[in-house]
Amino acid sequence: MTLAPAQRRDLALLAVLRGVSFLGDFAALTALYLRLAPAHHAWAIAALSIAASLPLVALAPIAGNIVDHYPAKRLLTLLGLGEAAICVGLGHWHGLAATILLMLALSCLVAFSFPGYTAMVPTLAGEDNIARAQGVLQSSQAIASVLGPVVGGLLVGGTGQSWPLYLDAMSFVVAAAATMSLRHDRRPTPRSVITDLESREGMMAGVQLIFRDGLLRVIEITVGVFMLSLGMVNVAEVFFVTQTLHGSATAYGLVGASFGVGAVAGSVLAQRLSQDVARLARTVIFAIVVIGLMIGVVGLVSRVGFVYPPMVVAGVAVGFANVAAITLFTVRTPERLRGRVFAALGGVITACEIGATAFGGVILTVIAPRTVFLIGGVAATATALVLGPLGLRSDAARAPMPVPADDAP
Fold first, then answer.
1. In angstroms, rounded to a whole number, what is the distance separating the alpha carbons of residues 85 and 25?
2. What are 45-86's pLDDT values in tens digits?
3. Which of the two ends of the chain, N or C, has the fewest CB atoms closer than 10 A to its terminal CB?
4. How far apart are the C-alpha atoms of 227 and 327, rounded to whole Å?
5. Which residues have a Cβ under 8 Å from the Cβ of 72 and sit 6 or more positions away?
6. What are the CA-CA distances from residue 219 to residues 84, 128, 163, 291 (Å)?
């Protein structure tokens, strides 16, 4: 379906503001890691990573519920201004305790803005253009994820450790202003038309919907195992490239860049995906199989140069998987529950990332980095091949399950 001029304007604006915001986030996080690494032990880096991730898990039910019950533009604008203020604080106060506490506060606000922006996409682009819109957004965010660390490193080297944080603050202000200028707004269902079922849907309605819908449950579990595998590989990657393959720091950076370039290409190509539920599910499953195979291939190579091609292919598959998964969860979910569903999805993925990072650090003390790549590749591929067909054959793949109600008022 063709986008109307107002939809094209809003989608382009959303893609730019999310890209700018992500660029600022990655630059700021790079600066914070560089701030803590020389003066503190590894536990300080771990604490910063936990502070950046834990609120997305702990606040998921509350955040999704708030997102579904307040007008999106007003809520997201206030969140953006709050995030900007916290980033100014991070640029001003450099102590370890202040850095950890302010990062924790920033992540608490991000826990609300992530499901807020994701749930707003169908409002901007229309229900028939979800895959196209998500492809545009994922492309913008993937580009930012590649450029952000580079910008952060250059700013730290050229201007000191504060300016990347001030840049992130400015990106949040720009995002807040752009959000208010959007012509479309996601609003809660008016009280006059709320049904008895909707009035009893509580904070856990998103989690309940996912795990009562056979297809979404299978996809969620498959994605969770995939994120665990990918998280372990991310921990092992620097040791595999620099120690096992004897690559330079530049070679390690190029590995991440090749993956990022692939992710951008995959997100662009995924804009043409059909919104048929079964096709979206097959795309997610096939993409995870490809990623698992490519991770396994990387674990078998003997020279750094051989790492780049499979990493590009894995990145393309990740781009497809991201767009297909978000589109699948969007079209499978009633509009009034999308904030809670995306908060739940983000919480599960983040929890898997935290667990994978911790487990990866432990497992690397007893297993070689190459073996971690092989285990991660086999685990992701096997899970998708075993669980994927079960979900596609389930009744849920042909007809959505009833939306659950929560007994809480």
1. 14
2. 778 888 999 999 999 999 999 999 999 999 999 999 999 999
3. C
4. 18
5. 116, 119, 120, 123, 185, 186, 187
6. 35, 22, 40, 15
317 within 8 A of 293, measured Cβ to Cβ: no
28-41 per-residue burial string, b: 16 or more CB within 10 A, e: under 16: bbbbbbebbeeeee
CA–CA gap between residue 279 and residue 397 (Å, rounded): 10
Distance CA 210, CA 375 (A): 28
Q: pLDDT for 191-225, tens place per residue? A: 555 555 555 567 788 888 888 888 999 999 999 98
Among 17-21, 141-145, 179-183, 390-394, name the one with the lowest average pLDDT: 390-394
Q: Which domains does the chain have, with CATH numbers?
A: 1-184 (1.20.1250.20), 202-394 (1.20.1250.20)
Integer Cα distance of 278 and 52 in angstroms = 35
| Tokens matching residue 69 | 């019950």
DSSP letters of 10-56? HHHHHHHHHHHHHHHHHHHHHHHHHHHHHHS-HHHHHHHHHHHHHHH
DSSP-derived 3-state class of residue 224: helix
Residue 404 in this model has a pLDDT that exceeds 70? no
CB 103 within 8 A of CB 57: no
| 3-class DSSP assignment, residue 333 | coil
Q: What is the arithmetic mean of pLDDT over 267-277?
A: 92
Residues making up the chain, counted from first to last: 409
